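batch_manifest entry 22 of 60
target: DNA-directed RNA polymerase
source organism: Pavo cristatus
requested by: lab member K.T.
priority: normal
notes from requester: please return tokens only, no post-processing; we will run our own comparison against the previous entry in this batch. if the run fails, retry once and flag.
--- input ---
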Amino acid sequence: MRPPKVVPWWRFAKVSFGLYTAEEVRKLSVKAITNPQYLDSVGNPSVNGLYDLALGPPDSKEACATCMQNFSNCPGHFGHIELPLTVYNPLFFDKLYLLIRGSCLNCHMLTCTRAVVHLLLSQLKVLEHGLLHAVHDLEVILNRFLEQSADATALEIEEELNRHVDEILQSQELSDQCSNVKNVCECRNKLISQFWKAHMTSKKCPNCKSRRSLVRKEHNSKLTVTYPSTICLWFLLQGKNFPDKHKRRHRVWHIC
Ligand SMILES: [Zn+2]
Ligand SMILES: [Zn+2]
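--- output ---
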């Protein structure tokens, strides 16, 4: 009699989503797309174009050059385009805009206090483990610490919060904490949007006291930065290559 088959099984511990790196994209790709023409003069798919047969057949008359299957059975295959310059991911353009708007272009720091940044990072860290209650606890801990040591440096604040985060993580039974994922996601989104609204709109940089630059976005592809007059003057005095320095105070980043 044959022994019963043992079916191996695993329980999901966690799922995360991310973006492929450039190297991973190249490994997944079956074809580098280098030809801007996707059809030739008689209407057939051009080699190395977007309709290249290596990516899958465009209609029922063709077969896939990668898996040799027909139009119905080929799953389709990834290709890739090598970009000659670094470009920002358009999916993150809104976040890029918020980050530049909330940054000091004089000292290149975020225009909020270090305490706020370290608090948010610590809260996001405990939320990765589903510890909703610790979000408020960390805020209380930070406020108490700042009352006792008003002149604490950024490093001291970071160390204090890290010490409490480690204690919280060690004292928790982590196995059951990720059960209420929806609440954790809502709390994370709320913390991040509060951070943008409440802490990234200050008129002066708390670090170097420079006035804030005006940042405008156009068509989700371009950012126009108008420097405050003091920085413009700094550019003029330093003899830097400031664009159209007699009339305009704009510097433009083309995103794509
Ligand atoms: Zn195929
Ligand atoms: Zn600054």
